[in-house]
Specification:
Length: about 475
């Protein structure tokens, strides 16, 4: 496949993924604001405990089959039934385990109210297990317009049910019912939108072949969970349920814009990389384009979160959430590093080297284990946020060095890629600090919106100015994006 047809397919796929994420996260964001106004921090903490318990089981039993199916260059139809059968068996076992360990988990977190919640949300695992395996083709063949329908209907169902239940019940069960409604909607849609009809299979050979790649995905998934969720477990156990509610809100808001928006690009990049995995030069060109797009979006978002977090929390979420502000600001840098780092995982997986991801995440996890306790004991959830952020800062240069060697990218070229958005973001943030100081006497929603708009225009203007001066290549990328839709 030539670069141009593939790039056009990636761009169009990226549009649909963008639509999936932007509409999905917009609904989730509105849902979060509404529920934050109605529910107490402890309600979010209880749901957080239940989700942690469920996610822990799911993570430590991942098969990695979906990633393996996408990475394969040949037709995957002969593997689908075997993969679906294994996923159903896994779902039934996990549902039973979750039901019976609910009392233990509730006791561990000293939150007896979490027991029935854990038992009920176990049904979401069971529902998800029976989802039509045929929808894996949507990602493999970059048919994200169909993936959009599948995911958005589930998100919309979650939103409608959760908000409606919150207005009526005004307790944590609104979150539970929303989760179940979303998963049930996706199950139904998966069979309506794809013609494949999976059947129970006894072909263990096919499952074993998929496991050869999937075991590394399992390892990476476990480590990712421990890195991104282990802090929640730690906070819930050491600091308390209410503190967990503050920490999870800070984490979501500080990471949502950067990681979710850049997820649009990286999600499309994996199947695209897989199609050109045999050409190092094409991989390098594709990676550079994606890295530029991710960085030019992630840097200003993180900078904006850091600057506007105090005013946003006070005006939008309410004064009761003020203890989350300092953590939100610290985690803004972590969100930036995660966004940039998200460009590397798809590259390693497409090259058939997921072991790189596992090894790097192992180092990061060890660093977190060394820092999280002393910093949390000293500064509470701010200390936890600093521990997570510091380890990400340490591990980033190591990862970048491996990426550069894998695709043959010179160090100075890579440094230029980072310095371009960093310098522009720093200048834009400095400008906003001056504006904030000048408007310190004015508070309210309108001044906040005005400052955000000024920040966006400042960053956009500097970006195009510097792009013309140093030839970063953003204008060419934008022209290619526009050209893919005009033709």
């Amino acid at each position: 496949m030539d670069d141009k047809p593939l790039s056009h397919k990636v761009i169009k796929g990226g549009f649909w993924v963008f639509l999936i994420r932007i509409l999905g996260q917009l609904l989730n964001f509105i849902r979060l604001i509404i529920l934050a106004r109605i529910l107490a921090p402890a309600d979010f903490g209880l749901m957080g405990i239940a989700l942690l318990t469920m996610t822990t089981l799911e993570t430590f039993s991942q098969t990695g089959f979906q990633t393996a199916l996408i990475q394969k260059k040949k037709d995957i139809k002969e593997y689908l039934d075997a993969a679906w059968t294994v996923l159903i068996i896994r779902g039934i076992i996990l549902f039973a385990i979750l039901y019976f360990i609910a009392p233990i988990a509730a006791t561990f977190f000293d939150a007896s109210a979490a027991k029935p919640i854990i038992q009920v949300i176990g049904f979401s695992i069971l529902i998800h297990a029976f989802t039509n395996i045929g929808i894996v083709y949507f990602q493999k063949e970059l048919e994200f317009n169909k993936q959009f329908i599948y995911e958005f209907i589930g998100t919309l169902s979650d939103f409608v049910v959760a908000v409606s239940a919150a207005l009526i019940l005004r307790n944590v069960w609104a979150l539970v019912f929303g989760l179940l409604a979303g998963n049930m909607a996706r199950l139904i849609v998966s069979y309506r939108i794809h013609p494949y009809r999976p059947r129970i299979s006894h072909d263990l050979k096919k499952a074993k072949e998929l496991w050869g790649f999937g075991k590394w995905v399992l390892g990476a998934t476990i480590l990712t969970f421990l890195i991104t969720q282990g802090d929640d477990i730690f906070v819930g156990k050491i600091v308390g349920v209410a503190a967990l509610g503050f920490y999870q809100l800070a984490y979501k808001i500080s990471n949502m814009p950067t990681t979710e928006l850049t997820h649009v690009i990286t999600r499309v990049s994996f199947p695209a990389y897989s199609k050109i995995q045999d050409s190092k030069e094409r991989l390098k060109r594709a990676y550079l384009k994606i890295f530029k797009l991710v960085s030019i979006v992630a840097f200003p978002l993180s900078g904006g979160i850091f600057i506007f977090a105090p005013a946003f929390t006070q005006l939008i979420l309410g004064a009761k959430w003020q203890p989350a502000v300092s953590s939100m600001q610290a985690l803004a840098l972590y969100g930036l590093i995660r966004s940039v780092g998200a460009t590397t995982g798809p590259l390693f997986n497409a090259l058939g080297k997921p072991k790189y991801v596992v090894r790097l995440q192992t180092i990061q996890l060890v660093l977190i284990a060394l820092l999280i306790y002393p910093l949390t004991v000293r500064w509470g959830i701010l200390g936890t946020s600093l521990a997570i952020t510091i380890t990400a800062v340490i591990i980033r240069p190591i990862t970048d060095n491996i990426v550069r060697k894998s695709i043959g990218l010179p160090f100075l070229h890579y440094l230029k890629l980072l310095c371009f958005p960093l310098l522009i973001t720093a200048m834009s943030c400095a400008f906003m600090l001056v504006i904030n100081y000048a408007w310190s006497a004015n508070s309210g929603l309108f001044p906040l919106i005005t400052q955000i708009v000024l920040f966006i225009f400042m960053y956009a203007g500097l970006t195009f100015l510097f792009d013309s001066l140093v030839g970063h290549g953003l204008k060419d990328i934008i022209r290619n994006i526009i050209g893919a839709y005009v033709k």
